[in-house]
Design goal:
This protein has helices spanning 13-24, 50-56, 69-81, 96-109, 125-132, 148-151, 167-180, 262-266, 269-283, 291-302, and strands spanning 4-9, 29-35, 45-47, 62-65, 85-88, 113-115, 137-145, 186-195, 203-209, 216-221, 229-236, 239-244, 249-252, 255-257, 304-308. It is α/β, with parallel strands linked by helices. Strand 5 (85-88), helix 4 and strand 6 (113-115) form a beta-alpha-beta unit. It binds NADP nicotinamide-adenine-dinucleotide phosphate.
């Protein structure tokens, strides 16, 4: 079968680190155009604005959006209005309302839309979900700590309105929690630490309600020094499940578990996202699970604001 033609929009860090290598390695996809105001990819037709690309290349069926969340809605709406399938980087938008609008637009147009959550594709996340499916959960803890200066050097948009601050990485952990836990959890209180010169939090503490559990919480910190900590602990009636390295490692009561699905897991997060997008388009389906975003929106809705020292790069 011919590969599907795809245009990539927003040629920045994640497009270069993950999307382009994944597309180049796949038989299912062909990257045929880019849209970016400043950047280009060698050998690929480049456009500076999406309307021009959509008009010039009616043959491109799928548009994958790697711009930051705040400007993403306009690009996604333009693509859907032009009757194209759309793949969204995480978080799928800046607000829940705009994500729902996009979902309805895609449904009306009969096109696929996919709100991706790359951390859900980490090697051991599916195994964790299966293991937890018949367990009684007693307590949930999430630690999501990294150095923003190392992971997002100079990316001021993360501190602008709509950039989500520490929830930009933290929503990855929340996307795993909402996938692996058998029941819904919700936020009961939060504290959000805002640098005095920035619009989004640099740290956050969340308390969760989970049916039958107590003392569940998350700690998010963007001023972590040294190695990042991307860990989840779930205490159950049958032992403690630990996910480390953002879902790449799983331990039960301290014993590492290897996945039976190693071949698939080894493909990596982004090849799995593109495999899923290919599947959705082939079946005429969409996937817009917004539960991680609800948790972030709720943290902003009920969080207590604390002012912290100014942040400079
Ligand atoms: P980035 O490099 O700062 O931005 C991506 C590209 O988007 C930029 O190169 C820029 O290209 C374009 N852009 C930036 N601001 C824009 C604006 N206001 N309007 C239109 N275009 C704009 O960001 P990134 O790190 O790749 O992150 C992009 C998305 O991927 C985010 O949602 C992030 O959460 C997600 N993500 C990032 C990582 C990571 O490690 N960085 C990992 C996983 C997911 P032009 O200036 O050329 O238009």
């Amino acid at each position: 079968m011919e590969p599907r033609k795809l245009a990539l929009v927003g040629i920045g860090k994640i497009a270069r680190d993950q999307h382009i290598p994944s597309l180049n390695a796949s038989k299912d996809w062909e990257l045929v155009a880019t849209v970016s105001r400043h950047a280009q990819v060698d050998g690929i037709e480049a456009f500076e604005d999406i309307e021009t690309m959509l008009a010039a290349r009616p043959d491109i069926d799928v548009i994958s959006l790697c711009v930051p969340p705040a400007p993403r809605f306009a690009y996604a709406a333009a693509a859907l209005n032009a009757n194209r399938h759309v793949m969204l980087e995480k978080p799928p938008g800046a607000t829940l309302s705009e994500c729902h609008v996009l979902g309805r637009m895609a449904e009306k147009a009969g096109r696929s839309i996919y709100a991706t959550w790359h951390s859900r594709e980490a090697a051991m996340v599916d195994a964790a979900r299966v293991w937890l499916s018949d367990k009684q959960v007693h307590r949930v803890e999430m630690q999501w700590k990294e150095d923003v200066r190392y992971w997002h050097p100079g990316q001021d948009w993360v501190f602008d309105p709509g950039g989500m601050g520490v929830f930009d990485p933290g929503i990855n952990g929340l996307s795993i929690l909402t996938k692996i836990l058998p029941k819904s959890l919700h936020i009961t209180s939060a504290t959000l630490d805002f640098p005095e010169n920035r619009q989004t939090p640099i740290a956050a503490q969340l308390a969760f309600h989970y049916p039958g559990a107590s003392g569940s919480f998350a700690e998010l910190d963007w001023l972590q020094q040294g190695d990042p900590v991307w860990s989840i602990f779930v205490e159950t009636d049958a032992g403690v499940l630990t996910l480390e390295n953002g879902g790449a490692r799983m331990l039960i009561d301290g014993e590492e578990i290897k996945s039976a699905e190693d071949a698939l897991a080894l493909q990596g997060e982004y090849p799995r996202l593109y495999a899923r997008m290919n599947d959705l388009v082939a079946k005429g389906e969409s996937e817009m699970d917004l539960r991680p975003m609800y948790l972030v929106a709720d943290a902003f809705a009920i969080g207590e604001r604390r002012t912290k020292p100014a942040f400079e790069w």
